[in-house]
Amino acid sequence: MTDIPYKIYLEESEMPSSWYNLRADMKNKPAPLLNPGTGKPMTAEELGGVFCDELVAQELDDTTPYIEIPEEIRSFYKMYRPSPLVRAYCLEEKLQTPAKIYYKFEGNNTSGSHKLNSAIAQAYYAKKQGLKGVTTETGAGQWGTALSMACAYLGLDCRVYMVKISYEQKPFRREVMRTYGASVTPSPSMNTEVGRKILAEHPGTTGSLGCAISEAVEDAVTHEGYRYVLGSVLNQVLLHQSVIGLETKAAMDKYGIKPDIIIGCAGGGSNLGGLISPFMGEKLRGEADYRFIAVEPASCPSFTRGTFAYDFCDTGMICPLAKMYTIGSSYIPAPNHAGGLRFHGMSPVLSQLYHDGFMEAVAVKQTDVFEAAEYFARCEGILPAPESSHAILAAINEAKKCKETGEEKTILFGLTGTGYFDMVAYEKFHDGGMTNYIPTDEEIAAAVAKLPKVAE
Amino acid sequence: MTDIPYKIYLEESEMPSSWYNLRADMKNKPAPLLNPGTGKPMTAEELGGVFCDELVAQELDDTTPYIEIPEEIRSFYKMYRPSPLVRAYCLEEKLQTPAKIYYKFEGNNTSGSHKLNSAIAQAYYAKKQGLKGVTTETGAGQWGTALSMACAYLGLDCRVYMVKISYEQKPFRREVMRTYGASVTPSPSMNTEVGRKILAEHPGTTGSLGCAISEAVEDAVTHEGYRYVLGSVLNQVLLHQSVIGLETKAAMDKYGIKPDIIIGCAGGGSNLGGLISPFMGEKLRGEADYRFIAVEPASCPSFTRGTFAYDFCDTGMICPLAKMYTIGSSYIPAPNHAGGLRFHGMSPVLSQLYHDGFMEAVAVKQTDVFEAAEYFARCEGILPAPESSHAILAAINEAKKCKETGEEKTILFGLTGTGYFDMVAYEKFHDGGMTNYIPTDEEIAAAVAKLPKVAE
Whole domain around residue A218: which residue ranges? Predict the structure, then answer.
């Protein structure tokens, strides 16, 4: 037995008091959002119609390295943070690997994931601006739940558009959001123009994150006193999620641990971007070196098979354009139970870093992911979310390589959440009914061919 | 802002190394279990047919105050313990009460409750004895999940009889247990003689804990290499659950906090007995005084409307007789969503303490409980289990009294678990379809009249 405890908890006094803005240390900044009408960078004024003011400032700020976390948000964080950094002793023993495995576990809150870190920040700034409420989309339901919790706490109205397939597969998610006073609508819906249009074109669609985003944005801009909030992709979200990485680094520093490999699942990039941020900052400043691995589903492989180009963040093509790795906003991914990873694009920050060679990416198959999830659950006790299990699988694969080579590498991964609301997917896995749909080259090429034309 | 953090976590080195056996400090010991055939106290040999040997020893030991926790169990505890002692700052503020409210939160593990504390202990001793597997019953599903997790970890077979109404209301619970490799059967079932008999007499029954216990015991005693394990009621379970109270007391002592009132929900008594044990020990030894309040559902009011007498622990009348507060083992409680509290009796240890005037009890209505649950969720963030919400309601009521009187009492309650698998009940509450069935005096009298005759 070593001196490293099973779980490292920081003291409240050791919790970060500022978020870290990774963009400040990037030489090649992420490309600005463009106005889809003019092709010009979105101004603060234009963004202010969609997002609340303070968040617009955070979205555009790529020079300030540290941004103070308001006292009210820090108080809220203390209700469920610091989250534990766990040493996976049991997993290591079961794998018989010389690798040392750690995971930052963000699932110990009712939203079931890291999403609450940004939800409370976005709700706080909306409240501060005197708004009535916010609208958003949710895939797996974790973001919607997180936002409902934050809004209930602050007394804000909350309208959630939930990807239809998740709405159907996760009936209880809706009830949790309702417990927190939110309204939940399956998307595409008849509530919005964009929803009606998508339903007319694809009557049987199971929805997608991109489509739900379009509806939520339209709802916000057409109602006085409402703004749209988003749980991933945006710079501001990665900023808020840096609390994950900052806590992780502080906990590791406290025990003199240095990770060799840092792994996270990647849908829009919020968890991965948050987890890696302080470590990536060190790498960018030449102070340390780490291997970073983004893990995405083979059914929606933005990094590994996408193109680095400007694209819409939403299917409805009403949002600003972002430069990112994308398989095309017109591509509707196959139903994949990791609903949180069914997004056609990837955070511009992470896309730029990947493009510049600072990180790697792998795509993994759903059935392999669930096999890893069950393996992990049985030895580490935690029932992981399908999204998080992508990172588990990659971590196990790296630990197995260490077993072959005898290397005692230190592997860190993000365990973003729990799978309590994913039992339909687990059931399908147990019953052998789970499939792996992998898009063909032709499908991706067709969607990429429809990318908006932008003169850069 | 005070110096007390939102969450107090002990260091691993501060975690208890022994369980505390409250019976050692009781002047009036809980009455022994009786053999229903002979009316004589059950011997170790007789109990050994049902329980594994080390657990029989713990069941019968009412003199040893501290029993060491084996190293293997302490390692397992470190995967999800210490659990946080939370200062409910937000709840206090919302209530505008001068009371200081603390709760010990046992829900941050995949079983979703404190049940894991005893599950791993019971599975460990079964494994140590070289058994093949264990059988058990589960009401809300938390105990079954906990046992599945413990068995998966140790490589034991696990057979769970799940109260039919819970099985139907919580389809995903079954899938969680399956993820951990357990087999789950709705009870009453055709697997056992007692199940077939109950089904013949009450064809439409929704089942009960007492009935599921009968089936699990029969399954164990009729299969070589199997023993029965129970998640509540028994002395051994309260012993294992003392880890809750020991951690709580250590955390409070660390910050110089002394509770005035200690509150817990009471079904079979495992959580309440565990939480109060070290505090009650001080009270019994005359070292300190505390008010203890057991909170039970008005639909199944063992303490407040039951009789202190010998009764069967199970509906099938095959288990030993225990002297306890009971509304009669033949009474089948109305469907109440707090499945974990639908037990006709109460732990003999707690029953004796209640009988001797060391604790109080209140019965509360289900709709009030859910109102308290939602109120709590919206300010403290945690979505509580219906069982736990009984304690929340009582704590809120005490805090409101403090507001009236201006007293700055310190209130401690046990938040035993999360409600992620109780969304059908929450949905019913939201839709206004929840009812409060309270047994009539005649119903209870009829069941009590059927109590077994025992010459004491």
Answer: 21-68+115-228
B109 chain-A contacts, CB cut-off 8 A: 381-382
Is A213 inside a domain boundary? yes
CATH number at residue A136: 3.40.50.1100
Candidates B75, B375, B383, B421, partner chain A, best to mutate (most A CBs within 10 A): B383
ipTM computed for the complex: 0.92
Query: Distance (Å) from the C-alpha of residue B10 to the closest C-alpha of chain A?
Result: 10
> Given CB atoms, is B6 within the 8 Å cutoff of chain A?
yes
Contact B266, B296 (CB under 8 A): yes
What are the tens digits of pLDDT across the range A197-245?
Answer: 999 999 989 888 778 989 999 999 999 999 999 988 999 999 999 999 9
Average pLDDT, integer, range B185-211: 92
CB atoms within 10 A of CB B408: 11
Tell me the β-bridge partners of A34.
A41, A321
Domain boundary among the residues A176, A201, A228 is at: A228
- Which residue of A lies nearest to B379 if distances are taken between CA atoms? A153
In a domain? residue B453:
no
CA distance A419 to chain B (A): 9
Tell the burial category of A72 from Cβ atoms under 10 Å away from its Cβ (0-12, 13-18, 19+). Answer: middle
B153 chain-A contacts, CB cut-off 8 A? 90, 378-379, 381
* Residues A417 and A289 both lie in one domain: yes
Is residue B421 within 8 A of residue B177, CB to CB? The reply is no
Distance of alpha carbon A150 from alpha carbon A366, whole angstroms: 31
pLDDT digits (tens, 9 = 90+) for B311-362: 998 777 778 899 999 999 888 777 666 666 778 899 999 999 999 999 999 9
**End of a domain among A200, A228, A256?**
A228
A74-112 burial code (b ≥16 CB/10 A, e <16)? bebbbbbbbbbbbbbbbbbebbebebbbbbbbbbbbbbb
Calpha distance B262→B393 (Å, rounded): 13
A366 and A392: one domain? yes
Phi-psi region of A160 (alpha: psi -120 to 50; beta: other; left: phi over 0): beta
H/E segment holding residue A377: helix A366-380
Burial class (CB in 10 A: 0-12, 13-18, 19+), A256: exposed
What's B340's DSSP letter? G
Residues B63 and B79 in one domain: no
Tokens of A225: 């006193």
Residue of A149, A183, A420 to mutate when probing chain B, most B C-beta within 10 A: A420
Q: Do the domain assignments include residue A40?
A: yes
Tens digit of pLDDT for each residue in B416-449?
A: 999 998 888 899 998 898 988 899 999 999 999 9
Query: Using a CB-CB distance cutoff of 8 angstroms, which residues of chain A are in contact with residue B175?
Result: 423, 426-427, 430
- H helices of B189-312, in order, are 193-201, 209-221, 235-254, 270-284, 302-305
CA dihedral A19→A122→A108→A181, nearest 10 degrees, is 170
A79 contacts B426? CB cut-off 8 A? no
Nearest Cα of chain B lies from the Cα of A412 at a distance, in angstroms, of: 17
Per the structure, the count of domains in chain A is 2
| Same domain? A60 vs A199 | yes
The answer to whether residues B392 and B413 touch, using CB atoms and an 8 Å cutoff, is: yes
CA distance B136 to A31: 59
Look up tokens 């870093």; give the residue: A353
Model confidence, pTM: 0.94
Helix-strand-coil split of chain A, %, nearest 5: 45, 15, 40
How far is the C-alpha of A105 from the C-alpha of A389, rounded, in Å?
12
Q: Is A379 on the interface with B (CB under 8 A)?
A: yes
Task: Find out whether A359 and A277 touch, Cβ atoms under 8 Å.
Answer: no
Closest approach of chain A CAs to the CA of B236, in angstroms?
23
Q: What is the DSSP letter of B40?
A: S
Under a CB-based contact definition with an 8 Å cutoff, are residues A35 and A46 in contact?
Answer: yes
